[in-house]
Amino acid sequence: MITVTTDYIPGKKIVKQLGMVRGNSVRVRHIGKDIMAGLRTIIGGEVTEYTKMLAETREQALDRMTEEAIKLGADAIVSVRFTTSYIMKAAAELLAYGTAVKIADE
To answer: How many CB atoms are closer than 10 A to CB 85?
Structure first.
């Protein structure tokens, strides 16, 4: 599955738009990671615990978006975007979305 943030794919033409596809994941913070993050605010540096958690969340959202596109018979997803929103105090949603398309060589 070709997945791009642009509205087009070089060397390909979009022959059919199949509609918007999306995938999301909601994660909550972990008390152990919060303790480590708290320590990092004292000594400085990257909060690797959260960096890893967000990277995993992005991949899961992308996988779910791709699964939805496959069900529609898509060859690619264009105009891919990410957004986040808070669900509750310790939980956030990461949403990946784009347009599922059929493509052909130019």
So the answer is: 11
